[in-house]
Specification:
- The structure is a single chain.
- The chain is about 40% helix and about 35% strand.
- The protein has about 180 residues and is α+β, with helices and mostly antiparallel strands.
- The chain has one domain.
- Strands 1, 2, 5 and 6 form a 4-stranded antiparallel β-sheet that branches. It has a 3-stranded mixed β-sheet with strand order 3-4-7, covered by helices on one side.
- The protein is rod-shaped and about 80 Å long.
């Protein structure tokens, strides 16, 4: 991300030093932005506690397990969905419509999950690696489901807006309107 921002900043400076008019500079910059596959604007680390319990009426004893795991979430704007034609330019004002921010990546390594508690009845089989992985997959699905409530998409929206405002201001625009489709 830092590398992409640095490259974009250099491109902006190079474009500003050229003799092109503002419209051409903007069209060129928007084409560059559309070529990015994604613009990650925020990353969260979320700790999730996953619990599993296997108590059945036909067994003697129970099996319980409690994991603590971390997931790294990256959110931002999927620039492959950006349409450079959605940019409206009128002299020193510009209106740009960006795709809605979304979760771009999630990484929750199963090998980094820590077992906090495990209890297996004397007459029961240990919890298998397959069962542990299934529980962790349920935890990952729960995190994905809860993404709208975490605030990560709101932060991604704010950061994308700040990024584009700064970029467009450097190009010379005085009135900047940024919308999300």
């Amino acid at each position: 991300m830092k590398t992409k921002f640095f490259i974009l900043s250099l491109c902006t400076v190079a474009l500003m030093s050229c003799g092109e008019d503002l419209q051409k500079k903007t069209e060129s910059k928007m084409q560059e932005m559309a070529a990015l596959s994604e613009l990650g604007t925020v990353e969260y680390t979320v700790t999730k506690v996953v619990k599993g319990s296997d108590v059945a009426w036909y067994t003697i004893g129970d099996r319980k397990i409690l994991f603590s795991c971390q997931a790294k979430l990256k959110a931002g704007v999927d620039m492959s969905e950006f349409d450079p034609k959605s940019v409206v330019i009128n002299e020193k004002s510009i209106e740009i419509t960006l795709p809605q921010p979304k979760l771009l990546a999630m990484n929750m390594p199963a090998d980094e999950a820590k077992i906090v508690y495990e209890k297996v009845g004397v007459l029961r089989m240990d919890i298998s690696a397959k069962e542990r992985n299934e529980l962790l997959q349920l935890g990952e699905a729960d995190i994905r489901e809860d993404v709208p409530n975490l605030g990560i998409l709101d932060d991604a929206r704010k950061n994308a807006e700040m990024f584009f405002r700064a970029l467009l201001k450097q190009l010379g625009y005085e009135r900047i309107t940024i919308k999300f489709a």
